[in-house]
Amino acid sequence: MNETGIDLSFEFIEITPRVVIANYKEYFDVNASAIILNNFIIVIDTLLFPRQSREFREQLEKKYKLPVKYLFITHCHSDHYFGIASYKDIEIFGSSMLIGNLNKRKKENWTEEAFEEWKTSEPEYTEFINEIEILIPTIEFEKKHNIADNDLLVEFYVAVRWGVELKKVGMDF
Questions:
Q1: Residue 136, number of CB atoms within 10 A of its CB
Q2: CB under 8 Å to 9, separation ≥6 — which residues?
Q3: How far, CA to CA in Å, does 52 sit from each of 34, 102, 129?
Q4: Three-class SS of residue 117?
Q5: Could you tell me whether strands 91-95 and 68-72 are parallel, antiparallel, or unpaired per DSSP bridges?
Q6: How far apart are CA 10 and CA 82, in angstroms?
Q7: Is the distance from CB of 13 to CB of 20 less than 8 angstroms?
Q8: Residue 90 in contact with residue 71, Cβ under 8 Å?
Q9: Is the pLDDT reported for residue 164 higher than 70?
Q10: Chain center to CA of 32
Q11: Domains of the chain (ranges plus CATH)?
């Protein structure tokens, strides 16, 4: 709980030694996740607010003693994207389709007027809404994007549905 009385806390869940999920149940059951590699961390999606995303990042880096190096945005729903400001110092990537959708939403839906309307409808969240920045990923891929770290390879790909696969080079992981 913070000074506004709004509970932005989330559950930090270690699924495996290399996969972590942050779950914010209080506001539409929002999730973000991370893949822990040998030398760095890849975060997948953000939580709803930058303050939460910053806390998730800090917890990851402290627990695993590794830097977050990449942020992958899966799709353009606000609960997967609005926390992006906490990652603007790292490489952010997504599919060409995602980037097109983000640019469209930025122009048509995520306007200053829309954010003002949100603050009017949920004034208790104003402080958190004011922290949101609309940033577009700088790395774009059409069908597949790989990230390697020594003997580990993470493959991000676009299909009918998005997918992430973690492999140990030479065998399934």
A1: 14
A2: 1, 24, 26
A3: 14, 21, 12
A4: helix
A5: parallel
A6: 16
A7: yes
A8: yes
A9: no
A10: 6
A11: 11-172 (3.60.15.10)
**8 A C-beta contact, residue 98 and residue 77:** no
- Which of 139, 141, 161, 157 has its CA nearest to residue 95? 141
Task: Tell me which residue of 78, 73, 80, 79 sits closest to 96, measured CA to CA.
Answer: 73
Banded pLDDT at 26 (limits 50, 70, 90): confident
pTM: 0.86
Contact by Cβ (8 Å): 37, 152: yes
C-alpha span between 16 and 142 (Å, rounded): 29
pLDDT for 168 equals 52
The first and second tokens of residue 22, run together, are: 């942050």
Looking from the CA of 51 toward its CB, the CA atoms found within 13 Å total 15
Q: Cα-flanking dihedrals φ and ψ of residue 16, to 5°?
A: -140, 175
Are 42 and 72 within 8 A, CB to CB?
yes
Tokens of 168: 């140990």
